[in-house]
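Entry for the shared binder. Reason: the reviewer on the internal report wants the predicted structure included alongside the sequence.
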Amino acid sequence: MPTDASVEGGLDEPTELEPDQGSLALADPADDHTRADWEAAAAAVLRKAGRLAEDDGDDLVWERLTRTTLDGLAVPPLGTPDLLEELTTSGRPTRAAGWHVRTRVADNETALADLDTGATALTVPATADLEALLEGVLLDLAPVVVDAGDATSARAFLAVLADTTPADGTNLGVAATGADLVEVARLARDAGVLAAVVDGTAVHDAGASDVQELGRVLADAAAYLRTLSGAGFSVDEAAGLVEFRLSATDHQFPTIAKLRAVRRLWARMQELSGVDAPVPMRLHVVTSRAMLSRYDPWVNMLRTTVAAFAAGVAGADAVTVVPFDSPLGEPDAFGRRIARNTSHLLMSESHLGRVADPAGGSYAVEKLTDDLAVAAWAELGRIEADGLDAFDARVAETVAARDRAVATRKQPLTGLTEFPNLAETLPERSGEGDDVRRWGAAFEALRAEPATSPVLLATLGPVSAHTARATFATNLLAAGGIAVTSEPDGARVAVVAGTDAAYDEEGAARAASLREAGVGWVVVAGRPRDWADDSCALGVDALDFLTRTKERLS
């Protein structure tokens, strides 16, 4: 895989302003700063926050602020031109208009309601009665994609399509490596529709990282091309019959880079298969179900908006926004409407579809795109060499790493692990929620069985002295479904919150008085103290701490 990521084509040459336009100063010369200036300014902030020592060099800001993804890719805090030296772009997004607003439906009433109120395309289950489900749907205008299709569902769908010129993007939806692939591909070719979906969302839902999702998609795409070329299809003919489906999360820039990278990888795979002019990728993006939360579900609207924005920036041809209330059960009309409108607002008010590749030229995004593409190509090699069992083992390692990040709140989940609201009333929905294992599953399990008694919050000194640590401890406990109280009667566990000076002066005495009052477990908010049984501070394994605390309460 070539390592290429700089901008190709560039901007048009600048033209002189017309006389009546006057002059245009793009920047004040006083605003021209060097890399060293930025390092000095950033270092000053980090020293104030205690993340750099006074004698540390300013250039250490890069080490302190560089983030490492679950795939081990380094994401620097600032995009700079040197990141793109000797790199060139290929496989750039080409969509220069809006995308299809695609919704998933399982019955006719929902299908017609969605299409009447903003949806422009549908995903339908292969197991449904397709004739009944699609009754009244204008199949020449709205592309329909069958999910997890086979030869039987393909014939049933084609019967529904009889005497209709199907909308562009209509797909019989067979799994790319399914046993029925060749038969369905021939049916699709004859009918002028797509045949298959290469789906990465399933491994994403299982916990795969960005690189692992890309690698698995590439492996399935390679198997798809091999199967059809072995059955007499040309590679470019086979490439024109498939759509790709990937996930988008609220990690905005990695998502943009991942979706840009997959186009390059697909183009490269075709080139290596002998195609002179690679067939452009058809890309359907679904906002992540795993990133959603059952608690404070309104935050899911923000998560899916960021994910849909990233999908639009990265050139998705169709976007499905998962309704915010999906974790609670069957989404209601409001949840579905918000999901549809998310795309329309991004297209109609933010005009996101007017530029083909708005992230193109960004040093940081181009570099991350290249890094993901190279790493995903290597992951493809591992899958081809070691098989899917070894791949599943690597995904399990990723799940464990993500769980650790969530447990320590290095990957915060707003409304669940951060700023939880124990007094909230969840919206009521019928049926069961999504069966996917969400990133915050362990915390959701704690919240589902709240503590039967509260923790006593014992503060030291004036409010101004204990507020920060008392608030930290209160929010941390709430993340596990544990309330706090100021009433000492019957308390089994107490958290002492104050300043370090207060702990030195009166912490031991306060802990002793709490024990005399019947408290069996004393926690200090801050670093460990010999007079406390436990401690909680920034960076603590919150999941482990909350589990221990609930055990003491019971």
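Summary line for the report: The chain has a mean pLDDT of 92.
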